[in-house]
Amino acid sequence: MTLKLFRRARIYTPTLGAAPAAGAEQGRIRSVEDGAFLVEDGRFAAVGSASEVEGSLSGRTPDQEFDLGGAAVVPGLVDPHTHACFAARREAEFSMRLAGRPYLDILKAGGGILSSVRAVRAASEEELFSFSRDLLRRTLHYGTTTIEIKSGYGLDLDSELRMLRVIGRLGRETVQTVVPTFMGAHAVPEPFKSDPDGYVRLLTEEMLPAVAEQGIARFCDVFCEEGVFSIEQSRRILLRARELGLGLKIHADEVNDLGGASLAGELRTASAEHLLAASDEGIRAMARGGVVADLLPATAYSLRKPFARARKMIEEGVPVALATDLNPGSCYCESMAFVISLAVMEMGLTPEEALTGATLNAAWSLGMQQEVGCIERGRMADFLVLDGETPATFAYLSGARPIRSVWKLGERVA
Ligand code: NIG
Ligand code: FE
């Protein structure tokens, strides 16, 4: 049993309600100016003013004490949407995009996601693990203490299972909490190019049951997009995943408005992702279905597209979460800190709304809200000491690292 006392902290944290923070709640943050907290065996044991927390010691002496010098302390960041398991970068393709070639065009020509599929299939399990472990290490530096990682660069049963094994091992062997998502429906692989429904059958009849049986994924995600999976195919895949006990996510209306947001609302998925082109009706359907919007502003930035309409979503009562989308193609972004600064500067979120999006709402979209995403008694003691006094530090020091230290389960890890 180790007991650690942290003093002189300006604590900023969303507080846990019965649902993810939506509307006015999104910006409601508990702040304690001369704050302190106790960590016992990796969990927050008390949080409050210095006198409250010292009072709760009731005669015990902490094993260690830390003076945080009045710096802002926020929950460890939760990145609820990444493709951070891959084997190679795609910089040449980035240059093609800079020269004006559309993202979906590159995929159609057999590049994009399909080129990452070739790289992942060619890599050994060990190579895939060590490449991805290095990626995770860098995300930790920018404050990510919990991370969702999708498969989806395998696109056949064996390669997808191999990716999910690697993702599971990342969870065991890195300091971060890792949430695995099966995304066999990331693209239609070459052999099924002229028979996409055949691939949907493979997904629903063989791949999903095998994934569910092995218990190696918590969610199933689908890339619902023109030339990838239609609304009808996405619905089939997601319903089958639900039947097998998996949580649901959907890449919806990223490039074109196919009605993915409405499908998310209809199916009451845990989250809908991207939503750059989501319609008003789609947004209202998400609000009705209690769907969290996982917004990925670094992807809009990297694809040079208009940002998702975060303010409209908040107004309509959709809880907004933020994520990096870290992947080798549409968005190579390791930094949740950068994502928060984009959300504030480009999507018009207040620093408090953005903080909620990058912590508690992100945790909700992963079903992890009882474990991470806020600084409250009983939660994992994951937190950041910022290089400033308020959550606005993320936007103020944009492009720099606004973080002094990163703590996971009460240990300093970066
Ligand atoms: O979220 N849109 C689909 N999937 C990723 C991109 C993956 C890739 O290009 O490798 C995304 O943008
Ligand atoms: Fe994605």
UniProtKB/TrEMBL annotation:
Record's catalysed reaction(s): 4-imidazolone-5-propanoate + H2O = N-formimidoyl-L-glutamate
A GO term from the CC aspect: cytoplasm
SUPFAM superfamilies linked to this entry: Composite domain of metallo-dependent hydrolases, Metallo-dependent hydrolases
Binding-site list for Zn(2+): 81, 83, 251, 325
Chain ranges of the Amidohydrolase-related domain: 73-413
Top-rank EC class of the record's enzyme: hydrolase
GO terms for biological process, alphabetical: L-histidine catabolic process to glutamate and formamide
EC nos: 3.5.2.7
Purpose of the protein: Catalyzes the hydrolytic cleavage of the carbon-nitrogen bond in imidazolone-5-propanoate to yield N-formimidoyl-L-glutamate. It is the third step in the universal histidine degradation pathway.
Name of the featured protein: Imidazolonepropionase
